[in-house]
Amino acid sequence: MASIDYNRNAQIFKALAHPTRIHLIELILEKRQCVKMMEETLGLTQPNISQHLSLLRNLGIVHAERDGNQVCYHVSNERITKLIDLISD
Question: How do strand 62-67 and strand 33-34 relate by DSSP bridges?
Fold first, then answer.
């Protein structure tokens, strides 16, 4: 049986406990998103969005890729996709 990292799981749940981060993940799940598009959709500032994305990136929930002068994101953890689907029903 695989070892379960309860501390990491708790950190992921804490990250997902913020409405903005859930909204960001849902946007990114729809399609690959660049920060500028997220700013326009959410009506939040770039520094605010970047702070949330940094936390999600550090936990391995999303992955960033540079596209010219923009940074774009996709969900890098399929378990998060399943979890968001479960809580959205």
Answer: unpaired
- Domain with 38 in it: 6-88
Q: What is the tally of structural domains in the chain? A: 1
Buried b (16+ CB within 10 A) or exposed e, 45-73: eeeebbebbebbbebebbebeeeeeebbb
Confidence band for 31, pLDDT divided at 50, 70 and 90: very high
Query: What distance in Å separates the CA atoms of residue 37 and residue 15, rounded to the nearest whole number?
Result: 22
1 is a domain residue: no
Q: What is the pTM of this model?
A: 0.88
